[in-house]
Amino acid sequence: MDAGLEAAFSAAVRGASEGGIPIGSALVIDGKVVATGYNRRVQRGSVVLHAEMDCLEAAGRLPASEYARATLYTTLSPCDMCTGAVLLYGIPRVVVGEERTFVGGTALLRDRGVHVEVVDDPACERLLAGFVRAHPQLWNEDIGVIDPDAGGGAL
């Protein structure tokens, strides 16, 4: 696991330790971890604090030239909201820990010219898959599944 994914994974573990959904993210610019974040929807009662959004918020306001050199690491394939943030800020590269648990917007990112690397990290998958099995209702809420029996969400 490289330093960016390690920082994202550590953030996910922190979120899990707080009773939240264990997804983490890290923003790396010029090889330096600038910010990390994790899913805080449960902890903050938020509708938008997915890991990537929390990470971008932690990074603060950055000029477009910084985002243009950035890589966003995330332990799980980004949802549509987080995919939109990557596109909005022009982040050219996204590294995804795993997308077996959830396939988000990686195809859209690729279609829009973002370099996406899915590493299929076993630790990322184990962490989230265990959570999904233990908390399927919370997981389905997080990813917006209205009817889990219709084939979405939980493993």
In a few lines, what is going on in this structure?
By secondary structure, the protein is an alpha/beta fold. The protein has helices spanning 3-17, 41-44, 51-59, 64-67, 80-89, 106-111, 122-134, 136-143; strands at 24-29, 32-38, 70-74, 93-96, 115-118.
Please describe the biggest sheet, giving its number of strands, its sense, and whether it closes into a barrel. 5 strands, mixed
> What structural category do the secondary elements indicate?
alpha/beta
Shape annotation: globular
Query: Nearest-angstrom radius of gyration?
Result: 14 Å
Q: Hey, roughly how much beta strand do the residues contain?
A: 15-25%
Distance, first to last CA: 24 Å
- The strand line-up of the biggest sheet is 2-1-3-4-5
- State the helicity in percent bands: 40-55%
* Uncertain parts: none
pLDDT averaged residue by residue: 91
Q: Please, how many helices?
A: 8
Query: What string, H for helix and E for strand, traces the elements in order?
Result: HEEHHHEHEHEHH
Annotation, overall tally of beta strands: 5
Question: Can you put this structure into words, describing what you see?
Answer:
With 155 residues, this protein is an alpha/beta fold. Helices cover 45% and strands 17% of the residues. It has eight helices and five strands; from the N terminus they run H-E-E-H-H-H-E-H-E-H-E-H-H. The chain has helices at residues 3-17, 41-44, 51-59, 64-67, 80-89, 106-111, 122-134, 136-143, and strands at 24-29, 32-38, 70-74, 93-96, 115-118. It has a five-stranded mixed sheet. The protein is globular, with a radius of gyration of 14 Å. The two termini are 24 Å apart. The mean pLDDT is 91.
